[in-house]
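Sequence in, structure out. Go.
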Amino acid sequence: MGTRTAKVRRILVANRGEIAVRVIRACRELGIETVAVYSTADADSLPVRMADRAVCLGPPPSAKSYLVKESLVTAALRTECEAVHPGVGFLSENAAFARMVEKAGLIFIGPRSETIALLGDKVMARREAQKAGLPVTPGTEEAVGNAEEAAAVVETLGFPLIIKAAAGGGGKGMRVVRSQAEIGENIRLAMREAEANFADGRVFIERFIERPRHVELQLLSAGRGKTAVLGDRDCTVQRNHQKLIEESPSPAVTDEMRRRMMDGAVALFDRLDYAGAGTIEFLVEGGAFYFMEVNARVQVEHPVSEMVTGIDVIQEQIFAGTEGRTTLPPGPAPVRGHAIECRINALSPGKVVRLEVPGGPGIRFDSFLYAGCNVPPYYDSMIAKLIVHAADRAAAIAKMDGALRELVIEGVKTNAAEQRAVINDRVFQSGDYSTKFIEEFERRN
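Output:
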């Protein structure tokens, strides 16, 4: 394809840790300068060392640093950046932040603020998905405001049910209800938690699928008629709705199901005139799949899609955001082999005194770690992603086992040993399991 360059000259990376490192590396290859931001806890972090410039946002708490919209926009303007990359988490799906960036005359590398706002409302997102022909689980068409409204819904849906926050995700504001007697208290708890986490207490109700798979599609789009699909990912292995292992392609999806998922996904992005990277998440049970939500940003697990397609998701996201184009033809991208990602989480803060990274063909380690760095206690526990690629799933599992054996992180306790136990588990290796896998694995072990 040859050397690619971008038209923007400088980008503010409005995030920290591994994703900030990932964005900085992508920008370097495109000849784009980067400005890192940091809290005082991250003053010696790898993104700060790698970026062309760095700006301190404030003290360690996210609410006083990485989540202060005005400080981020000011930092971008003062360092003469032309665009802002929000990364993942923090403000990456915050419509108000995207709008503030846009009003400042800067480019927000993501969907338009109005698209983020629409998709952030799970009730509205369900409605748009249905119009695009995607199936949704039976549930409320509008948000539910109190226990009385919920009781009326129950009569038509039956049990079990799940209550979800209309304005958020990640398991917050979520309650499973199995009887009429549980409705009132769970509605109140879900609304309270939704209000506390998202400043929006609205909830909606769906039929609860007991043993689903969690499957998602990676999309890159430059607008209507310009959407590429980079295969599917299986994210079924999770604890408390937090993903632990992701792989591509999903062992639970047939070619026919994959085609129908992709057709509906492209139709939805066309309806939205979507621009940027995005992920559509589905619940899969048997031969059926149901739309769950759209993540209007790049995902933590994007490397598995990169490994099976050879496409740099971050660079394409930058092209889409800053130039209204990607280098990809519309439709499904060719997928080769199988990729698996294990999230390496810190179980405690501390100083990394020794780091040995696995290597060899088809092995990738995305992290902000270096020997001597500190892992602060204030942020997300994920400190690295170990990704492998091989000809098929069995070979990828074997390669991941070898890579986890080679990985050495001393000074900070991690979940690497548990990840190795999981990928060597007979049920995981069978490919036949549900989102209950981890709790069942823990009972077996």
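Check: The chain has a mean pLDDT of 94. Residues 346 and 414 are 5 Å apart (CA to CA).
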